[in-house]
């Protein structure tokens, strides 16, 4: 089954819902002086509850977006460091990159654990894992679970996808005119936005989340480095040529 994630559409509707709730709140006059238990007070309570619920959903969406982009940022950095620059890589190499990505915080985790154990040994106590250790464990457990069921990555075994991936726009290039829209016209027509991946640029600004639908994405699996299947057909017109 092919799944196409139309990025930006849900975010736009979600933002409109929040704006609508805030507008409703503004229309309620004299909110500070209304009598508790009145219909206006009940309306204010309902709107506040809705705004709080929407705010929680927005934070969850932003966290999910950040988690999704972390893998692309990592792969972009790794690809930018390769010499000579590849036109494509093997499925086995892509599988290896995923493993390296999932294991990326192992050194930090081991150092934190070692420091804690040394400190506890000197003080003759057990302080328990730090918050950072817990975060790394949870993140790695989540990503390993996805790897078992199919880890989503750009199909860098395909030279068209590799070429488009190297043109991944920096987030700072988003303007009010293009925000929330796909970048097919820019990728094909505007060479100024098609710079090769730059490590400094990536670290400062990150990648443009709205570019993802342009790319062909596949799933790779932990138990078989020769297995992959299609997750998303790239929307960029170059795939149809």
From TrEMBL:
Q: Where is the composition biased (Low complexity)?
A: 184-195
Does this UniProt record's set of keywords contain Coiled coil? yes
Query: Coiled coil: is it a keyword of this entry?
Result: yes
Tell me the InterPro entries matching this sequence: Tma16, Tma16_sf
Regions annotated as coiled coil: 44-71
Q: Per UniProt, what is one Pfam family of this protein? A: Tma16
Give Gene Ontology CC terms: nucleus
Q: Which UniProt keywords apply?
A: Coiled coil
Task: Write out the ranges of the annotated region (Disordered).
Answer: 175-197
Q: Which PANTHER family match?
A: TRANSLATION MACHINERY-ASSOCIATED PROTEIN 16
Family named by the database record: Belongs to the TMA16 family.
> What's the protein here called?
Translation machinery-associated protein 16
The organism encoding this protein is Wallemia ichthyophaga
